User: Fold this.
Amino acid sequence: MLRRLTKGILTLALLASGFLTLQAGLTIWANPALRPLRDATTAEITASIDRQLALVATSETLAARIEARLSETPRNWVALDALADLAKDRAIPLPDDLTTQITAAREADFSPAALAGDCADCALDIAKCTLTTAMVCKVPLLLTPLEDIRGIAQAGVDYATGNQIDQIDLGLSIAGLTATGLALTSGGTTLPVKAGATTAKLARGMDLMSPRLIDMAATTARTGIDWAGLPAVRSTDDLAKLLRADAIAPLSNTLTDLGRVTETLGPSATLHLLPLVDDATDAARLSRMSSALGPRTVAAAELLGKSRLFRASLRATNLATELLIGLGALGASLASALASALGGRGLRHIRHRL
Assistant:
């Protein structure tokens, strides 16, 4: 009697879990737009990062990370300041000798003579810019449409003369100049694209762009413009006639999110975080993270890394929870049914032998 009851319960559990799994699967199949994950709210992101930092941000971990940053040449003061601020905000003590090293390094790097020399090098060669000097010595030129026009015009000359075209610079120039022209007629709503394009150009020159983001810019240059008319482009009006909006959209969306990060954290912090961005999805996640965490985004990225940082921006939907429960119950029911069947067969075999 007990065995029949157990078998009946297991059968019902198997049927129920199978029904839940099938229902969730059919719902997803009927509507591909449904996702098993959703964007976390600002409160959820903050709570998740706070929990992780409470475990990771120890005195030893912070000291080791700061020492590693101090040993770099040039020193990354965006990361160093973010780590020091985190230690101060959370009242985490740092060794006295480490504090002395930070003060000495700051005095050396920010002396008038050092800044003047670094700024001159940055103005002449973007590859020599640092996160400190790039904002003062290079950004003013890149923020103007003249730089984008120069990039497009240079590509036109190279195309006409058969020289190799800098497709990365061209792709970013197309997005930046288009944003500048559209902003004049839309009240400035596309200015984040221009800010993102400027940041990306700096990052490219400083070797901070990820390979996949570089490929996206190159693809935009190849497919987003009518090459035959490129040599004659001298203004946004000329350019607008040659553009293919659908091909430019992925890069524009990515740069828009990077522009929002720049508005929230500033250009230097965005440059520091840009190597984390491989595609439009990463850019959108970084934008949400920066909106939720503010300046703490840099310290969180330093201590948690890209995977854990971006994972905090996602939450499982009810559909995903239902599907996981169904799969778990189905697996448990199948295992129990199999064990019961094998057990019954074993008992019959023993009885037969006896």
Q: What stands out?
A: The longest helix spans residues 318-353. The chain has 18 helices and two strands.
